[in-house]
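User: Okay, second chain of the day. Same drill as before: sequence in, structure tokens out.
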Amino acid sequence: IQSHLLWNVFMAAAVGLAHEVNKDFVLFHLSTLPHMLLGTAASLLLVFRTNSAYDRFWEGRKLWGTLINRCRNLASLAVTNMEDPTRVVPLVAAFAYLLGQHLQGEVRMSTMPIKLQDSELREIGKGGNVPYRVAAMIREEVRGVGNNGEFPASAVRVSMEEDITTLVDVMGACERIVKTPVPPSYSRHTSRFLSVYAFTLPLILVDKEGLMVVFSVLMITWALFGIEEIGHMIEDPFTNKSVSLPLRDYAITIHGSLEELVGHKLTE
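Assistant: Same drill. Structure tokens below.
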């Protein structure tokens, strides 16, 4: 918002100085009614803009909360019901890391700490939708649980399949957020509306405030454009910016929970 602040402060200073030279100029005696009415419209635009951005941010957080719970549950079922869960648990941990990278637009196996088998790495290396490929590999591993229809093994397999389906659903919902941005026309209109409103504000205030209009305009534009900028910053919750959701930290949380479950490191 720095450029907006500089331009509007410059405009306010110019209007303030001109007012000191000629206080009877017609533009310094405009009605305040239009700005009062447009202020209400600006407030509604900003509220809707910020709310829509926060809804996307909060939905992303809830989806990753679901992912954390389902990964823990799936790994727990694998450990307690499979003879050899050593393939499933690392894949579940890898899914979380790779989904975060996938949502940020670049899968980097060099930063994924989970140790996988060579055959699994070759399968992942084929590219495409890597998290979905990992989910398919997990599904293939649990296929043999309760294959003979015995109870409760068959019920456990159904539960594990449901967890895997939820992982894929979470991935799809996150992809929907990434691929469906806030309409650019709405963002542009809000920005232009605020720019015109703030740029003409000194003409309305200068007759009463004189040179102090500079400080009034500075505070008002900082508040308005700051709120708008917050909406821009949080509308995409899966970027690698500091204001976005810490996807890697969530993956590390899952990683730690699964290592406690199996009793050994998944990086070795």
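The two ends are 47 Å apart (CA to CA).

User: Thanks, on to the next one.
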